[in-house]
Design a protein that fits this description.
39% of the residues lie in helices and 19% in strands. The strands form 4 sheets. It has a 7-stranded mixed β-sheet, with helices on both faces. It has a 4-stranded mixed β-sheet with strand order 1-2-3-15. Strands 13-14-17-16 form a 4-stranded antiparallel β-sheet, covered by helices on one side. The chain is built from 14 helices and 17 strands. It is an alpha/beta fold.
């Protein structure tokens, strides 16, 4: 089916919730994608940090295929081995405690917020500006972005956003606070790394007022920043941690990891999901962990990230770079990031993502090589040069 036919079907039958680029991808391998005409692209977006091991990673494909041939779904009224094993692996690799499965990052955050509210009923939730936690009502209420919230008001009461500073967190948290929710590195707004002072202040305030510290690592976790979990860099351990995106290697799965203090807050009937923790998605996630927990891979992510930060800062028109590991963003002095991303896609066959009028984001697979990085920089340099010509 041609691109034009797909666009016609979309116009007639698909709710217009997405602004799609005019490309139909039909195949992927590693850091490469191919369109319907057989043209090859270099993927430095990874499906918005989902395909972190690249497309069609052999271990993930094998796990999915083997599990799908055995059992696809039975629901959470019964046991399956992949779900129990995955919960054990996630807890052991992070906070200890226990795991609740979901289907996405926003659902994992909803579960975290419900745990916090049940633990301190009627308590308020504190988030920080530039944060993004999802689009369902609870997670949207914790996402202080006017363009995303305003069309769907009124939102859930009891949510308050403050500036991303230690002083603002310290002033906002009190005995009424049920939880503080933060992305250690804010992805959707343009890869803003929260400073260690803020994270330590949030931990201290939550301890003082018996509130939960929730880290949203939906985008920045699972090796993306060069450590398995982003919280490891500052050494500030949260009470709850949410994961999704990269966890399933491309399949939809989310997880709330509760440390010991919050592990038994939920009881049967408090929360649930028909599809969450299904055996195929959990089998895929176990394969992902097998790869991402490798220390050599994580060291390579850190080294390549530092190299890319240095090289990106040298590109024409780039006024600032930031990030950690392979979660990076560039600001353009003259703006025009959406136009640059479109030009890079259509003319240079480089897949990027714009997070705002002046900012584009790079989220390549964690498995990219140095040659892949060089090629992406060359294509990006050409796209930037054509903008000024």
């Amino acid at each position: 089916m041609s691109l034009e036919q797909l666009q016609a079907l979309e116009r007639e039958h698909v709710v217009p919730a997405y602004a799609r680029a005019p490309v139909q991808f039909v195949r992927g391998e590693g850091a490469r994608l191919w369109d319907a005409d057989g043209v090859e692209y270099l993927d430095f977006q990874s499906g918005l940090a989902v395909t972190s091991l690249g497309h069609g990673h052999p271990a993930v494909v094998a796990a999915i295929s083997a599990q799908a041939a055995r059992l696809i779904h039975v629901g959470n009224l019964f046991y399956t081995q992949p779900g129990m094993r995955l919960a054990q692996r996630l807890a052991a690799s992070s906070l200890g405690g226990k795991v609740h499965f979901a289907n996405s990052g926003t659902e994992a955050n909803e579960a975290a917020l419900k745990v916090a509210r049940k633990a301190k009923q009627g308590g308020t939730i504190i988030s920080v500006h530039r944060g993004f936690h999802g689009r369902t009502y609870g997670s949207l209420s914790a996402t202080p972005q006017e363009s995303k919230q305003a069309p769907f008001a009124p939102l859930v009461p009891g949510f308050h956003a403050v500036a991303p500073t230690a002083a603002a967190i310290d002033a906002a948290v009190d005995d009424r606070t049920a939880a503080v929710i933060l992305e250690p590195i804010q992805g959707e707004s343009g890869v803003w790394v929260l400073d260690d002072e803020l994270l330590h202040a949030a931990r201290a305030a939550c301890d003082e007022h018996e509130a939960a510290l929730i880290y949203d690592e939906v985008q920045c976790g699972l090796g993306r920043t060069g450590t398995l979990w982003a919280y490891e860099d500052a050494g500030v351990v949260p009470d709850m941690l949410t994961s999704a995106k990269a966890l399933g290697g491309g399949l939809p799965i989310g997880a709330l990891i509760c440390g010991p203090r919050y592990a038994d807050v939920l009881e049967p009937g408090d929360h649930g999901s028909t599809f969450a923790g299904g055996p195929v998605a959990c089998a895929a996630a176990l394969a992902v962990l097998d790869v991402v927990e490798d220390r050599d891979l994580l060291a390579r992510v850190r080294a390549l990230g530092e190299r890319l930060l240095d090289e990106l800062a040298r590109l024409p028109g780039v006024s600032a770079v930031r990030g950690r590991g392979l979660m990076l963003a560039c600001d353009l002095a003259a703006g025009g990031a959406p136009e640059l991303v479109r030009r890079a896609l259509l003319a240079q066959r480089l897949v990027l993502n714009a997070t705002g009028p002046a900012t584009f984001r790079l989220l390549p697979p964690l498995t990219i090589t140095g040659d892949d990085a060089d090629e992406a920089l060359a294509r990006l340099r050409t796209a930037l040069a054509s903008a000024g010509s």
